[in-house]
Amino acid sequence: MRTEWKVRDATHYDVALIVEFGEAHIRAHYAPLIGPSAADNQVTRWWNREQIATPVSAGLVVVAEFDGRIVGVAQRGRGDSDHVIYKLYVDPAVRGRGLGVELLDAVIHRLPADADRLLIEHFAANERAGAFYEREGFTVERVEPHPGGDAALAVVWRARTLAT
């Protein structure tokens, strides 16, 4: 696959494509890390039409498109007073080619001018994501243990200070 993608704001026309992206990639990505049941839960809970359409309509989602397909998705939102990235996923066929950084930059450029920090979260078992975020300047702020005690499902929160 060539890397001639276009990163842009998602529109309501993209909702079904983003849901398809989640179905195609999220379960397969998470199952080895957190188990098949928890991976299914991620897809069912966070990659359904309603969970995608709401932030898309609010202008909080960017996508990378290549040849009519979605090859990357990033979603931002708010957690209390902080800006947060809730989704940052790249099609495995284009990983390692800079698309993750491009999606991250696209989200940052869409933040309000006075945003001074950005949070991101990932499962503790997702060490690849943790290494990527660390390379991009995110440092661990806290780790929330999973209520059931599963260390793989602990949520790692990272923060990055933004230039003002």
Report on this model:
This protein is an alpha+beta fold. It has one domain (6-161): Aminopeptidase (3-Layer(aba) Sandwich), CATH 3.40.630.30. The protein has helices at 15-34, 36-46, 49-57, 99-109, 127-135; strands spanning 6-9, 61-66, 69-79, 82-90, 117-123, 139-144, 155-161. The chain has a seven-stranded mixed beta sheet, sandwiched between helices. Helix 4 (99-109) links the parallel strand 4 (82-90) and strand 5. The chain starts with 5 loop residues before the first strand and ends with a strand.
Question: Could you provide a short overview of the structure?
Answer:
The protein has five helices and seven strands. It is α+β, with helices and mostly antiparallel strands.
Note the main attributes of this structure.
164 residues; alpha+beta; Aminopeptidase; 7-stranded mixed beta sheet; 5 helices; 37% helix; globular
CATH uppermost class: Alpha Beta
Number of helices: 5
Strand segment tally: 7
Structural class: alpha+beta
Strand order of the largest sheet: 1-2-3-4-5-7-6
**Portion of residues in helices?**
25-40%
What is the alpha-carbon Rg in Å? 15 Å
Largest sheet, in brief, is: 7 strands, mixed
Supply the number of structural domains.
Answer: 1
- Average predicted confidence as pLDDT: 93
The unreliable regions are: none
Q: What is the overall shape?
A: globular
Which fold name corresponds to the CATH topology?
Aminopeptidase
Element-by-element helix/strand order: EHHHEEEHEHEE
Query: How large a portion of the residues is in β-strands, by DSSP E?
Result: 25-35%
Distance between the termini: 37 Å
- Classified in CATH, the superfamily is Gcn5-related N-acetyltransferase (GNAT)
